[in-house]
Amino acid sequence: MACTLEKFIHSLDPRALPRVLQIQSGIYFQGLYKVVADKTPYGSVEEITKKVSIGPTRFGHPCFYSPEDIKLANLTIKHGEQITFNSVEEVNGTMAVNCGVVRNSQSHSFTLPLSQEGKFYECEDDQIYTLKEIAEWKIPKCRNRIVKLSNTLHTWDSSNPLPENFDGCLILTPVYEVQAVMKFRKDIVHILSDLDVEVKDITDCYDISSFLQPLSLEDVFERTSKEFPMVAEIMEGPSGSQKPYNLLHTGKEIVIYKKYQATRVLASEIRSDSPKRHFLIPLSYKGKFKRRPREFPTAYDLEIARSEKEQLHVVATKAFDSPHKELFSVSVGDQFLVQQCQTSEVLYEGRKKVIDVLACEQILSDAYKKVLLPMYMEGGFVEVIHDKKQYQLSEICKEFRLPFNVKVSVRDLSVEEDVLAAVPGLQFEEEITDSYLLISSTNIPVESWEIPVYRLNMSVHLLSKDVQTVVPPATKTTVEEISEEQYYMVRRYENQTLHPPPRPPKKPTLAPKPVFAVPKHGVSDVLHAPENVCVDTTKKLCSSQAAGVSELQVSCQNDLLHDENKKDTTGKATLVDTSVIKGLTNQGLGKCEVEEEEEEEHNYDYVDENIIENIRKVFQDATVRNKHALSEGRRDI
Question: Sign of dihedral through CA atoms 23, 25, 27, 28?
Fold first, then answer.
């Protein structure tokens, strides 16, 4: 029977030792955190260098500002200007800090001597960090650190030590753990910094070569390229059952051939609920993909996604009422071919104004109509796929813009288990470049493996052995599944994309008209009702209608996802042309992914008959609720 560690220790008979324990459960602080700027100033540059970690990694560039101007020989740092501390080195016989400021997108470098005095305050930091990164880089010596839990990964359950919906700050006081090696021993001992012992530093009078030197993968990667290849023995291996992690156990000897940067495609599982699975896929992946419909929340996203290679065909999943008569009002179910971005002159509050618009062709039953959509339009669109080709990963990265939706059509046969093949849909989000080491086993060097430097917790020590073969064997690359936390660590430094142009202020308007028609005998009653009651009734109606559309979107999407992974036993399909789609979607059809049937001679879009029936059922339920809301409104009147 499991019990707390404290209870077990109290009940333990020392004469029964040793005992073997297995951890059953525990509480751990996980997630990502934002650092709150320290309000206590530093008195000099020297104090900063002694208490704050400054180094070559991306975490080692702290930023400060001075409340007063700092006058240098050829530059004046203005008060409040952000100063980045990059490195500490000797300049002309004096220790100084290499610093930089950014003005008008131009970087200016300068040095500050350690003797520079004055008040220096920490700047606000908008990045997110793990607890490990905060402990190593973001807690100044002899100070605490205040952090806020980022809501990016804030999922609460009963085991969470924080209250539900906690939005306060945490004060971190580190208790450091020291990794130590005893003389003539290979194993690593972990010692907490609050252990009640006295120690003495005897480094200067002792031969340190009699101790093994543990190196992390980051330490190995920082070595010069000339030092590779090298032979190492694993002192602490990583956890995990996936190759090659299951081969890297303690005591195993490996050859580390080289260090390098490699490209991966960051992909996430397409699903409406959380949590999603995330993957880093090498470009050498040998499986094939078929396209899946993309979703676009704004007209601006359509402009980003369009390409010269093919015309983008979309269906509107959300209505938009244009405030300008020169621009088009969109109804749910309208279909468009996206053309290009341009400018258009509109009349706004009696004045002519030039705004960015997206030129499209609306697909009608027997013609095409040129329309203009405002670039600020917040609507909703889903792509119609006409491309049946199967693509290699490298082809997708070369021919299309990311993000890009796909599903595996042919699994990678070069691996025993293709983890991507079981995922119903993937979104390729971006290409990233990451650091890797190429390794193989010393005793059976049949194949070599790439291991990530910054996501694998592993310690080695170098052996003074010659490498038998300098040329590495055939390299095996694998799809790496990463955690939610690692996913946000990978993505947090991506380039920020431009946002849609801002929408002009809305002029005061009456409450929007309900989408569903009101019976004739109730129209006059509503129109002649007091204004506040009319608005209230309309709000109820719109709220019910929005809920109905939302249900349609989720229901339709779930049905399509299920249908893709289950063969239709009836063999029936409903042929839906433009007019049928328009008729259904105008009645509240939401996100419905439409894929082209495997028929060369036709260009129709097929939707399963059961899905159509489900759409009708959900729509009917929403209509009944709307009628009920309307009758309630009449009774209130």
Answer: positive
Q: At what angle do helices 578-585 and 609-636 cross, to 10 degrees?
A: 30
Q: Tell the residue number behind the tokens 């070559």, with chain if given.
A: 56
| Least confident piece of the model among 14-18, 30-34, 187-191, 409-413 | 14-18
Helices (DSSP H) in 242-352: which residue ranges? 299-305
Q: What one-character DSSP code corresponds to residue 636?
A: H
| pLDDT tens, residue by residue, 173-197 | 877 677 777 776 777 777 776 777 7
Place of tokens 């929340």: 297
**Rg, Å, the chain Cα set:** 31
- How far apart (Å, rounded) are the C-alpha atoms in residues 292 and 299? 19
Tokens 């036993």 identify what position? 569
CA gap 454, 434 in Å, rounded: 9
One-letter amino acid at 101 equals V
Query: Is residue 297 helix, strand or coil?
Result: strand
Tell which wins on pLDDT, 49 or 510: 49
Lowest mean pLDDT among 21-25, 401-405, 509-513, 612-616: 509-513
How far, in Å, CA of 330 to CA of 544, rounded?
20
Q: Which residues contact 580 (CB under 8 A, 6 or more apart)?
A: none
- What number of CA atoms fall less than 13 Å from residue 181's CA on the CB side? 18
116/102 Cα distance (integer angstroms): 21
**Burial (Cβ within 10 Å: 0-12, 13-18, ≥19) of residue 528:** exposed
Check residue 605 and give its pLDDT.
Answer: 39
Do 303 and 341 form a contact (C-beta atoms < 8 A)? Answer: yes
Helix H or strand E encompassing 615: helix 609-636
HEC secondary structure over 491-541: HCCCCCCCCCCCCCCCCCCCCCCCCCCCCHHHHHHHHCCCHHHHHHHHHHH
How many angstroms separate the CA atoms of 551 and 559, rounded? 12
| pLDDT score, position 436 | 94
Structure tokens at 354: 């030039």
Mean pLDDT computed over 584-595: 39
* CB 603 within 8 Å of CB 596: yes
Looking at the DSSP bridge assignments, the partners of residue 353 are 346
Question: Which residue matches tokens 């699975």?
Answer: 277
Long-range contacts of 18-27 (CB under 8 A, 24+ apart): 25/159, 27/159, 27/160, 27/161
The encoded tokens of residue 541 equal 């109606």
State the first-to-last Cα distance of the chain, in angstroms, to the nearest integer. 65
In the numeric block, the tokens 């023995």 are attached to 233
Give the span between the Cα atoms of 485 and 466, in whole angstroms: 39
Query: Tokens for 619?
Result: 């729509």
Q: 372-383, pLDDT tens digit by residue?
A: 998 888 878 999
Asked if 453 contacts 443 with a C-beta cutoff of 8 angstroms, the reply is no
Single-letter code of the amino acid located at 623: T
Query: What are the DSSP E strand ranges found in 156-287?
Result: 169-172, 177-181, 188-192, 215-216, 230-236, 253-269, 278-282
Task: Kindly report the backbone phi and psi dihedral angles of residue 163, in degrees, each rounded to the nearest multiple of 5, phi listed first.
Answer: -65, 155
For 557, half-sphere exposure in the C-beta direction (CA atoms, 13 angstrom radius) is 19
Q: Which two tokens stand for residue 315?
A: 């269906």
Place of tokens 């309309």: 538
406 token code pair: 């796909």
Q: Which amino acid is at 460?
A: V
Rounded to whole angstroms, how far apart are CA atoms 253 and 261?
A: 24
Could you tell me how far CA 14 lies from the centroid of its own chain? Answer: 50
